[in-house]
Amino acid sequence: MSIVLGPHQYGKAENRIVRIYRDSPRHEIHDVNVSTALRGSFDAAHLVGDQSDVLPTDTQKQTAYSYAKEKGLESIEDYGLVLARHFVDDVEPVSGARIEIEEYAWERVLVDGSEHDFTFLRKGQETRTAAITIEGKGSAQKAWVIGGFKDLVILKTTGSEFHDFLEDEYTLLQPTSDRIMATSLVAQWRFFSPDGSFGDIDWEGTYAGIKQIMVSTFATVHSLALQQTLYEMGKAVLEAYPFLAEIRMSAPNKHHFLYDLSPFGVSNDNEVFNADDRPYGLIQASVLRDDAPDAGPAWTIAGGFA
Amino acid sequence: MSIVLGPHQYGKAENRIVRIYRDSPRHEIHDVNVSTALRGSFDAAHLVGDQSDVLPTDTQKQTAYSYAKEKGLESIEDYGLVLARHFVDDVEPVSGARIEIEEYAWERVLVDGSEHDFTFLRKGQETRTAAITIEGKGSAQKAWVIGGFKDLVILKTTGSEFHDFLEDEYTLLQPTSDRIMATSLVAQWRFFSPDGSFGDIDWEGTYAGIKQIMVSTFATVHSLALQQTLYEMGKAVLEAYPFLAEIRMSAPNKHHFLYDLSPFGVSNDNEVFNADDRPYGLIQASVLRDDAPDAGPAWTIAGGFA
Amino acid sequence: MSIVLGPHQYGKAENRIVRIYRDSPRHEIHDVNVSTALRGSFDAAHLVGDQSDVLPTDTQKQTAYSYAKEKGLESIEDYGLVLARHFVDDVEPVSGARIEIEEYAWERVLVDGSEHDFTFLRKGQETRTAAITIEGKGSAQKAWVIGGFKDLVILKTTGSEFHDFLEDEYTLLQPTSDRIMATSLVAQWRFFSPDGSFGDIDWEGTYAGIKQIMVSTFATVHSLALQQTLYEMGKAVLEAYPFLAEIRMSAPNKHHFLYDLSPFGVSNDNEVFNADDRPYGLIQASVLRDDAPDAGPAWTIAGGFA
Amino acid sequence: MSIVLGPHQYGKAENRIVRIYRDSPRHEIHDVNVSTALRGSFDAAHLVGDQSDVLPTDTQKQTAYSYAKEKGLESIEDYGLVLARHFVDDVEPVSGARIEIEEYAWERVLVDGSEHDFTFLRKGQETRTAAITIEGKGSAQKAWVIGGFKDLVILKTTGSEFHDFLEDEYTLLQPTSDRIMATSLVAQWRFFSPDGSFGDIDWEGTYAGIKQIMVSTFATVHSLALQQTLYEMGKAVLEAYPFLAEIRMSAPNKHHFLYDLSPFGVSNDNEVFNADDRPYGLIQASVLRDDAPDAGPAWTIAGGFA
Questions:
Q1: Which of A180, A196, C24, D197 lies 20 to 30 Å from D288, alpha-carbon distance?
Q2: DSSP 8-state code for residue D173
Q3: How confident is the model at residue B98, as a pLDDT?
Q4: Contact B273 A27 (CB under 8 A)
Q5: Which residues, in sequence order, are CB contacts of D127 under 8 Å at separation 6+?
Q6: Residue C276: its chain D contacts at CB < 8 A?
Q7: What pLDDT is stored for residue D155 in this prediction?
Q8: Which residues, numbered 34 to 73 in chain C, qualify as contacts with chain D under a Cβ-Cβ cut-off of 8 Å?
């Protein structure tokens, strides 16, 4: 028996890069949070403190900022692919790279009813996400791209039921045929590229389309359970986009409890609720094509680490 | 010399009330966080633990929820006034009440281009606020109403300079004639009501108008300092609304530092920035009418406590 | 009627300064978060964007870091006094300064039972605070010093009652003679210095003493209300330290609700609780000497701004 | 090609259970945050909204609270095993369960130098964690137990170098032979039980021992890289506890940058630092026995979901 080094990676997390395009009077803004992680045989750094194969995390940072200008930063999926490929292709000891990106949306301020050229308000609640993984050198290289969002806070005031569930001796919950259903949705979808280049995907249009489909489906499906709503949302997305292999959703059931006003002689016909903090239900589900290619390391967050 | 009880108050903080109006198929939602605080002679509770003058914080909570139905919850300023007056008018030992409210905005989901009747997305970033103070009983009763918002995140990519500042031996800052200016604005405005009733104010229209004026002014004023921009924003608001006595603004200068790409031979003409976290400049300014009535306890947050 | 500039101030918030003393093998660490704010006649900056009287917030930052070495950073009250006096004494347009400081405590790691010379763990939960205000130049200069802590999380599992309270038609709360009492205490005490120099106060010993008195009193007072416990804590502190003019406390009543296990035939004699998040009671009280000197601007947080 | 349901699970997250033992005048407190997740064939709930196999998340909550009394809540690993086995053994459609627990530590208040019987202060910074996974029914049942902590904030003011690293055209970092090294450590260790019962493990003693070994090793290893320090910490833990199969660590390199005081003519010999927020290095490494049994689903957080 002996003790050995297991999986490991290292990088620079949360580079807060803001990229302005100002080639015309109408500026564009891309506001992102980029985390890099490199994988490879960095055993010497761990075992004897030898850094000769270790590209500093500071260098990873410098590269991320410089690439925002050199290579551009428009779609985060493209930027992430270029950055990840650079680390694997150009840094000899690096066998794999993972780039995780969050993007914060801005919308133009309206002045006298017209969009302003260079002033913006932070938009909405949700954060767009991407996770790009590259493994292998040369012709053996493979790429995986995941898009997504988090913190999409959505609520319906009716059109949601929950009843006829399994009961045991600890079951106190009463069935309901009309409740508020609310969540702060995390969704991640895995792109499929037959030739591995991801060269022809309309990243921006796809993002907008997926979000609209998910939001519309949440609204229009009469829900018998959050599980059912999630499945229908995922199914509708996969049906619309054949280049998506799967979608994963994590949905806290943000409980809104009907407040009991009967002690005060006040009726409450689903009008006054307490928005509770904790605990909350947590529903997690994935929907996939049955011929989806293998996910490989696509979902491995930070090399298997929480 | 003796040791005595000083100012004190107590209440129930952060009641997360969600009020749905569902009288028609097109539901409305008001999503608020209500904090109550009562003032009066509660000396016995402190000195000898005698609660006979203390209306429990739980009762304050029950009242806040029940009033959302009994009295309605549309404009938070109206709701706060009604709730505060109840505590002062109807609970004998209470001589003053302060209600602080946050409101979270929602917007309707679009389905096939039409607004959905009962499904909503959390909207924007800013939180609307109100603080209502009532003091005194009967004809001696006075009221103060403050409206506002917080976390309005706004940024302009140009149109901001900073130079010709005071220098001393610790001054390293370089002047600039073109920088990003960004803040997460807190603004609070104090309403003035000649008869103290606040009966004829269009709370919703005023809120929308103030926000639009502030955002437009931020966009269109060519800024020589954040101080100047804030003053112009406040002045424009007071000019538009004669029933506002003053406005206070607190604006973190969210620094976006131009990233130095010159070591890599890459130009950076205000294109790539690092969005820094801490430290940040913090600019605070108020604008008022020179004949504004006295603010009294309007601004006293939680009875003088942080 | 005209519109005018009201109270204003500006500074650099949240400078995260870490000061190491390494004059002997046994290092010392002071880990602080310093916010500066300057007051004076900065009207030109607001009205016409003229910065000639404005010492940049960047300069304030540089000074705060340099003074940590030049003047030393041991007791935060001393450091704050020196820094505040510098801004008022040495920068002509500045008439007042406020320095707010948080200090994070560290404790030495134990290795083989002995304290290590230069390795530390973050200690405890509470953050020590100070707020120093200087106003006026030369012989007219006055100083105010507030010490304190926040986030002192304390709980007792018994020895707390609540009953015989005022009831109205919204009162549902049941009286109790045995409950958990828990809070996350904020306390701030105002020092009094007859000659205004604060020259002979043992800042470190006083802090440790106040904390011990407050914690002991919380433990040993049989509580009929959180108000009573707070008053006794404040009174004991003022009795022990004659150079304290007053103490202010803000105490969320962190509710621990007894969980109803009776549906499962399980007894629960104050053994299983739900630690609730929101809403929470919020009790705020001050205790002072009846001959306490005027507080002046000591408590004015950020110039009257929230 | 068809679209199908993939991996899924559901449960109740963040049950904030506080368990008091009061059988003697000296009370004990266990303060935990419990999340449950059930796995099985819940296809009907997703596909057609049929809940007949779904034990409500509310029931999972009720069970978690009731078990804190019925079965006791002392070591979180034991409590998690009992709760997970109940769901798998006693609820027919459930084939697997995962229980994740955080525990917040408290220490007794000192009164006149003695530990108080029933008053406690929140202790330290780190949160203890556990993750228990049970899969399979009857004799095929298997169990995995992970212990750990997060937010252990540790810093050394010297004894850390970083140099002789790989350089490319984006490398600006200067080598150093003396720097602050600080992290907020997350560690998780996987227990090994030959008979799968985990019956003879001293959970409390092991936790205290692992923490002491890690902290001591961080202090005493002269560090050439955070990677090296982490490896030595993990190796020391595995050498001390033969019933641990592996340990995983995630360590943000909390940068403390030496502040440049030279423009002011002030020396700074590793005395004044800026504690930076973002970005930060992130080093992740695992150490394991080369004969460690397979991890199975032990590390699968929330069924593969972030």
A1: D197
A2: P
A3: 96
A4: no
A5: D102, D103, D104, D149, D150, D151
A6: 16
A7: 98
A8: 62, 65-66, 68-70
pLDDT, tens digit (0-9, with 9 covering 90-100), for C226-271: 999 999 999 999 999 999 999 999 999 999 999 999 999 999 999 9
Amino acid identity, residue D289? Answer: R
pLDDT (0 to 100) of residue B301: 59
Is C165 within 8 Å of chain A by CB? Answer: no
Nearest to residue A266, comparing CAs of C45, D21, B88, B64? B64
Would you say residue B121 has pLDDT above 90? yes
Residue, of D36 and B300, whose pLDDT is higher: D36
Check pLDDT > 70 for residue D94.
yes
**Chain C residues within 8 A of A169 when measuring between CB atoms:** 264
Closest CA to D102 of C32, A279, A265: A279
C-alpha separations of B221 from B211, B236, C81 in Å:
15, 11, 38
Site from C173, C261, C278 to mutate, A interface, most A CB atoms within 10 angstroms: C278
Q: Which residues 91-110 on chain B approach chain C with CB closer than 8 angstroms?
A: 91, 93
Helix axes A76-90, A57-70, angle to 10 degrees: 130
pLDDT at residue C305 is higher than 70: no
Q: Which residue of D170, D263, D278 is in closest CB contact with B264? A: D170
DSSP state of C264: G
ipTM: 0.94
Rounded to two decimals, what is the model's pTM?
Answer: 0.95
DSSP bridge partners of B153: B184
Res C122: pLDDT:
96
Interchain contact B270–A (C-beta under 8 A): yes
Smallest Cβ–Cβ distance between C65 and the set D157, D158, D272 belongs to D272
Whether chain D has a CB inside 8 Å of the CB on C292: the answer is no
pLDDT digits (tens, 9 = 90+) for A80-127: 999 999 999 999 999 999 999 999 999 999 999 999 999 999 998 899
pLDDT for residue C302: 47
Residue D296: predicted pLDDT: 87
Residues B62, C170: C-beta atoms closer than 8 Å:
yes
> Is B272 touching A (CB cutoff 8 A)?
yes
For residues A237-241, give the mean pLDDT: 98
Instruction: Please report the beta strands in B157-229, taking only residues with DSSP state E, as ranges in sequence order.
Output: 181-191
B209 three-class SS: helix
Q: Is D61 a catalytic residue?
A: no
Which residue, A214, A40, A193, A223, is CA-closest to A126? A214
Helix (H) or strand (E) holding C12: strand C3-13
Shortest CB distance from A275 goes to which of B16, B125, B180? B16
Q: Could you give the CA distance from residue A161 to residue A43 in angstroms, rounded to a whole number?
A: 55
Residue type, D177: S
Residue A207 to residues A76, A154, B100, B103, D80, Cα–Cα distance (Å): 11, 17, 39, 29, 40
Number of A/C CB contacts below 8 angstroms equals 9
Q: Is the pLDDT of residue C1 over 70?
A: no
**Three-class SS state of D6:** strand
A141 touches chain D (CB under 8 A): no
What is the set of domains in chain B, with CATH numbers? 1-137 (3.10.270.10), 141-306 (3.10.270.10)
Q: Contacts of residue C4 in chain B, CB cutoff 8 Å? A: 287-290
pLDDT, residue D306, reads 40
The answer to whether the CB atoms of A62 and B266 lie below 8 A apart is no
By the 8 A CB rule, do C207 and C240 touch? Answer: no
- Residue D57 a catalytic site member: yes
For residue B306, pLDDT beyond 60 = no
Q: Is the pLDDT of residue B300 over 90?
A: no
Residue in D closest to A37 by C-alpha: D282
| pLDDT number for residue D301 | 59
Active site residue C12: yes
Structure tokens at A296: 């490989």
